[in-house]
Every structure is written in structure tokens, then in C-alpha cells.
Write a structure and sequence with these properties.
By secondary structure, the protein is mainly alpha-helical. The chain contains 7 helices and no strands.
Length: 179
């Protein structure tokens, strides 16, 4: 369910973020949604055997929305925060860090599931909650850092002026003439 929601919402949220800016705030809200999903999952009581518990849909929807916001906002921030000559390196570094997390996290998750409290799901959700809290902290730092050192560029709307400025440089003009 979270992936279906993300598949549908990510392009829509991308358009909204492109029109409104506020990337750092969107990223912060994504971590809040993920934290809420973890807390609600922990608080849902198990249903009677054989009957579905539709309350489980709430955290799944929150997780899907949080992931959608994260995907639409975070990856778009990279070109705003690094020099153009390092954009590929920055994407590679972000992907490497993400893959390290995707390698280590299942090991920690499986260890959490081997605990007796709520068949391990309590500690699993606590682990994910701690990660979400760390994400919120880093997002607050990103927001403050962006305001202080980059003039709040992550919250601005890109009107394409930077692209026009780039295309008017002599190198770009020579490329256009060569084509």
C-alpha cells in the first residue's frame, strides 16, 4: 500500500513542490508522517483472530504519504545545494548512503523482531521511530543551515532564471551554434 500511494502521489507532490518551493519543510513533514505511522502502529491493538483490523490502514497511508513527500522533495534539493560540477557526485553519495542504510537496517530490524515484547514488533517500531526522530533532527538542522548559509534557497520557487542565466554563457552559446 505505501508503494502504491507513493507511485501515485510522488509526481503530484513533485508538481506541488515545484510550484510552491518549501522543500526543507516538506522533507521535515515527511519525517513527521513516518514517525506518526510508527507510533500509531505501536499503539494499534491486535484484532481478534480471523477478523481484519482496518486500523492498520492508517499507518500504511501515513507511511505512503511520508515516503512520497520525501522522494519528491529530497532528491530535488541536491542541485540547489551543491555546485553544478558536483551534482553527479552528490547523487552518487546520496545513493551510496541510502544503500548502506538499506543494507544495515534489515539486520537491525531482524534483531528487533527476535525480542518477546509484542513478538518483536514493539522494538521494531521503536527502532523506526528513533530513525524518524533522527530524521526530524537532521531536517531541522538542514532548514536552519539553508536559511543561514544559502539564503533559504530550498524554500524558494525556481522560476528558471538560473537556467536562462546558464544558457546565456559563452560555452552554452557555442554548444547551441555547434548543433
Amino acid at each position: 500500500m505505501p508503494y502504491i500511494i507513493s507511485g501515485i502521489m510522488s509526481p503530484i507532490l513533485g508538481i506541488i513542490i515545484d510550484k510552491n518551493g518549501k522543500r526543507a519543510l516538506f522533507i521535515m513533514f515527511s519525517s513527521v508522517f513516518i514517525l506518526l505511522a510508527c507510533i500509531i502502529t505501536t499503539l494499534i491493538s491486535p484484532s481478534e483472530e480471523g477478523s481484519p483490523n482496518y486500523a492498520c490502514l492508517i499507518p500504511l497511508v501515513l507511511l505512503g504519504v511520508g515516503y512520497s513527500i520525501y522522494a519528491a522533495a529530497l532528491w530535488g534539493c541536491i542541485p540547489y545545494t551543491v555546485p553544478p560540477r558536483l551534482v553527479g557526485t552528490a547523487y552518487g553519495l546520496c545513493t551510496a548512503v541510502q544503500n548502506i542504510g538499506l543494507t544495515i537496517s534489515p539486520l537491525i530490524s531482524s534483531a528487533a523482531l527476535n525480542t518477546p515484547k509484542q513478538q518483536g514488533y514493539f522494538w521494531l517500531m521503536m527502532y523506526f521511530s528513533i530513525l524518524a526522530c533522527c530524521g526530524i533532527g537532521i531536517n531541522v538542522w538542514l532548514y536552519v543551515d539553508d536559511l543561514k548559509y544559502r539564503g533559504g534557497i530550498l524554500n524558494k520557487v525556481d522560476t528558471g532564471e538560473n537556467l536562462e542565466e546558464l544558457m546565456s554563457t559563452p560555452v552554452a552559446a557555442n554548444r547551441r551554434d555547434a548543433q
